[in-house]
Amino acid sequence: MAASTVCELCDGLEVKTARAKPHDQMLPMEEKRVFGRGHRGYVEQDYRCVECGARFTFSTDKNNKPWTLWRG
Length: 72
Prior knowledge:
With 72 residues, the chain is mainly beta. It has a domain at 22-69. It contains no helices and five strands. The protein has strands spanning 26-28, 33-35, 42-49, 55-59, 67-69. Strands 1, 2, 3, 4 and 5 form a five-stranded antiparallel beta sheet that branches. It is globular, with a radius of gyration of 12 Å. The two termini are 15 Å apart. The model has no long low-confidence stretch (mean pLDDT 89).
């Protein structure tokens, strides 16, 4: 697969809600990052798909999209 091509499991993940879980082929890349505390805080976690190699960041920050595909 080309670097810009994602598998069927990853396709459309960017438009899913914050309640959407990573699919079974996505593995965490490192520890979760916690920003702030309490109801104003949020968490970010990076994932890599073992099927297509796509990398995503999941964020609970209300000002960010829940799922962001790494580009480039």
